[in-house]
Structure formats: C-alpha cells, structure tokens
Amino acid sequence: MRTNKLVTITLAVALTGFGLAGCGDSTDAAGGTPSTTPSAAAEAQVLTVKDPWVKASGAGVMTAAFGILVNDTDADVTVTGAESPASPMELHEMTMKDGKMIMRPKEGGFVIKAKSTHELGPGGDHLMLMKPAAAIEAGDEVSFSLKLSGGRTVDFKAIAKPFAGAGESYDPSMQMPPSGMPMSPMAR
Does residue 88 lie in a domain region? Predict the structure, then answer.
C-alpha cells in the first residue's frame, strides 16, 4: 500500500489598495488548525479558498489546482501569483483567440470583486503547476500560497483527486473549439 505524500504548497495573495504587508502562516504546527496571530487573522479576512483540489498527475506533467476564491471584504482583491513546493506555478486562463479556445497566462492576475467569489475550475481560470517534481497522486495533500497585489499571502492545502473531466489537457499547445469541448488529438 502506498503512503500518501504531504506536498506543501503555499499560495500568496496580495490585497489591492490594502496597506498592510504582514504575512504569516495560517496554520499551527500540527497542520490545518488556523492560528490566532493577528497576521493570520487578517489574512483570513482578505481571501479564503473554498473546496480546493488539485488534479492528480505524474511527475513532470503539467496539472492544475482549482477551488473558489472568496472575498468577504469591502475591497477588490487581486491574486498576482501562486507558489507551491510541489512545482513552479503560473496563473492561467482559458480564452478565445482566432475562433479557438486557448490556455494562456493570466495577465494582471485574478481580480476578486468585493463581497464576491471567483471560480477556478477545469476549462477556466486555474492555478497551473508547470512541472511537478514528483507525482501528485489521488489522496495527496498539496500546499499552496497565493500572492496578493499588496504583498500579503494566503495559504491553503488541496487534496489531489483523479479527474478526466471533458478530456482537457494542460499542455500549453492545447486548443479547444468554440463549444468549449476539447478537440481530440486527431483533430489538431
């Protein structure tokens, strides 16, 4: 029986227009319990990640992390980047170009309007793990840190799960027809 790996991924998120630069780990040493430090409490109020998960993948194979970014504050929040000890990362979006759906880095980051949410999901905006150093297998816990525009960070953990979805691929050359359904490799 395989023992699940603990992959720590830290996502840092910066709050637009928010003058505080404090950062801190939002979990205690036991892992998972929110700490009571002022920095962690302030971060929790800036942005939270609901239902996070990561698509299981082999070592060196691009994959992505998903969830719902929740902004309960009265100001817009911009996620400018993401980090994980599991892999170099980029913020990505799916968009139309020349009549085809393509994946590309998200210029300017993800803006989460005040008192709203922003979904990261297959076929849409996502956190791209560019080249995981080790396989991310179903059941593994991966840590992330979101970077916010004001220099703050928001940490969260996501569980890996198998996901075939609509057959999407996170290869940079991926193209999707306007319907949003991926093209088969034979049609490319």
Answer: yes
